[in-house]
Write a structure and sequence with these properties.
This protein is about 45% helix and about 10% strand. With about 250 residues, the chain is an alpha/beta fold. The protein has a 5-stranded mixed sheet, with helices on both faces. Helix 2 crosses helix 6. The radius of gyration is 18 Å and the shape is globular.
C-alpha cells in the first residue's frame, strides 16, 4: 500500500526556510523601483526561488486554472514538484506599503479560489492536491494569520523584528517548518542541548500537522482546532525557540 502523501513531500522544511529567508533578506520593499512594479518583482522573486529549488511550471508556463463556478483564475505563481503526482503549489503574492498590514479579506479570497479550483478538478474526475502559499511583503494582521493557521495556508512575510514599524505580535512570524529546519541544524551542532531541541521539534511537528496542510477532495477537517488556540500554541513555540536559537 503506497505511503500517504505528506505536506513535506510538496514543500520540505529546507525549501520553506529558503523561501522565507529570501523574503527577509531581499524583500521587494527595499528595491528602488516605483511601487506599481514591486508586486510583479515579488512574484518574480518567489518564482525564481522555487525554480532554484527544483520546482517546475506547467507546460507553456500556464498560470490559469478553472474553478467549478466557471471562473478562470490567473495565479501569481503556479508550480509543481517533479515526482509528486497531481499536486500543485499555488502561491498568492501581495505587495503592500511598508507600515501597513495584509488583511484577512485577501486570504479569504485566496482560499475560496483554491476551493473552487479543487472542486472543478474533482468534478471532472481528475482530482488534484493543492498546497496554498500566501506571500506578503508586509506582516499579516492577526485575523489573517489566524485564518491561515486554521485552514492550513502557509503564510510567509519578511521579518521586521529589528524594526520599530510593527508590534512584536506581528513583526516576525517564522514558518514552523523553517523553525524545525533551524532546530535540526542546531541539534547537529550542539548535541549537548539535544533534550531541549528534540522537545521543541516534537512540539513544532504536532502543531505543524494542524496548521500547514494541502487541500484535496479527500481531506477531512476532523480534529481541526480553533484559530485562537492555534495562534497561542504558535507563539508559545516561537518564544521557546527564541531562547534556543541565536538568530533566524
Amino acid at each position: 500500500m503506497p505511503r500517504r502523501l505528506r505536506t513535506s513531500d510538496l514543500l520540505s522544511d529546507f525549501e520553506t526556510y529558503r523561501l522565507w529567508q529570501g523574503l527577509s533578506k531581499k524583500g521587494p520593499t527595499k528595491s528602488p523601483v516605483p511601487s506599481r512594479w514591486k508586486g510583479m518583482l515579488l512574484e518574480r522573486r518567489v518564482f525564481h526561488q522555487l525554480s532554484e529549488l527544483g520546482f517546475r511550471t506547467l507546460a507553456g508556463r500556464v498560470k490559469e486554472l478553472r474553478g467549478l463556478s466557471g471562473i478562470v483564475y490567473e495565479n501569481d505563481v503556479l508550480v509543481f514538484k517533479p515526482g509528486v503526482v497531481n499536486s500543485l503549489l499555488i502561491v498568492e503574492c501581495k505587495f503592500r506599503r511598508e507600515g501597513s498590514l495584509t488583511e484577512k479579506n485577501h486570504v479569504l479570497l485566496f482560499y475560496q479560489r483554491m476551493q473552487d479550483i479543487l472542486m472543478y478538478y474533482a468534478a471532472i474526475g481528475y482530482p488534484k492536491i493543492l498546497l496554498p502559499v500566501f506571500v506578503s511583503s508586509v506582516p499579516l494582521d492577526r485575523n489573517a494569520f489566524r485564518f491561515c493557521l486554521t485552514y492550513g495556508i502557509l503564510s510567509l512575510h519578511p521579518c521586521y523584528e529589528s524594526s520599530s514599524i510593527y508590534s512584536s505580535m506581528v513583526a516576525c512570524r517564522p514558518p514552523l517548518a523553517a523553525l524545525r529546519y533551524l532546530l535540526s541544524t542546531l541539534h547537529e551542532e550542539k548535541p549537548e542541548s539535544s533534550g531541549v531541541i528534540k522537545g521543541l521539534i516534537r512540539s513544532i511537528t504536532r502543531l505543524h500537522r494542524y496548521t500547514i496542510r494541502y487541500i484535496s477532495p479527500f481531506y477531512c477537517f476532523r480534529g481541526a482546532l480553533d484559530g485562537n488556540k492555534l495562534e497561542k500554541a504558535y507563539f508559545d513555540i516561537l518564544y521557546r525557540c527564541k531562547s534556543v536559537l541565536e538568530t533566524w
